[in-house]
């Protein structure tokens, strides 16, 4: 029984020594067991083929919902003025009638446009798309 315990302990020690040798990159004396490092092989960015159809990377995000809002104007009120508002009150905005409204996507300005009526619903006719440089400048 004592001999069995010693042989199990010796086998465990040999396994541990072998694993440590692999972790530290030491193999046998002739260099066998070392792996050669290779450059990674990445696929090109662009279209991906599925079922014979090419799908561009942008198609992967096309069904993500975003919130689009239109800002007609803003104003500042005192708390007393705010509390005095009731049904039929008119709040004067700091934007002139006919001045372009701002179109926001997830709270970021992306365009300006004019308010139009389409089939008895309000709509926006885009008149100016905000340039990338203007969007970057607004982040600063």
Helix-strand category: alpha+beta
Q: What fraction, in percent, of the residue positions are helical?
A: 25-40%
SS element count, helices: 3
CATH architecture of the domain at 64-85 and 96-139: Roll
| CATH classification, class level of the domain at 64-85 and 96-139 | Mainly Beta
Number of strands: 6
Gross morphology: elongated
Which stretches of 5+ consecutive residues score pLDDT under 50? 1-9, 15-29
Which strand order spans the largest sheet, edge to edge or round the barrel?
Answer: 3-4-5-6
The largest pleated sheet is described as:
4 strands, antiparallel
Strand-residue proportion: 25-35%
H and E string: HEEEHEEEH
Query: Which fold does the CATH topology of the domain at 64-85 and 96-139 refer to?
Result: Surface presentation of antigens (SPOA)
CATH H level, superfamily name of the domain at 64-85 and 96-139: SpoA-like
Radius of gyration, whole Å: 34 Å
**Could you tell me how far the N terminus lies from the C terminus, measured between alpha carbons in angstroms?**
76 Å
**How much is the average pLDDT?**
77
């Amino acid at each position: 029984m004592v001999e069995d315990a010693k042989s199990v302990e010796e086998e465990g020690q040999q396994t541990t020594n072998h694993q440590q040798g692999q972790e530290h990159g030491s193999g046998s004396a002739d260099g066998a067991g070392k792996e050669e490092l290779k450059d990674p092989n990445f696929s090109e960015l662009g279209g991906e083929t599925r079922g014979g159809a090419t799908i561009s990377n942008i198609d992967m995000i096309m069904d993500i919902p975003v919130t689009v809002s239109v800002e007609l104007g803003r104003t500042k009120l005192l708390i007393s003025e705010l509390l005095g508002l009731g049904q039929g009150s008119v709040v004067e905005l700091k934007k002139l009638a006919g001045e372009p409204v701002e179109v926001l996507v997830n709270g970021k300005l992306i365009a300006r446009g004019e308010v139009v009526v389409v089939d008895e619903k309000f709509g926006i006719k885009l008149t100016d798309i905000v340039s990338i440089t203007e969007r970057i400048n607004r982040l600063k």
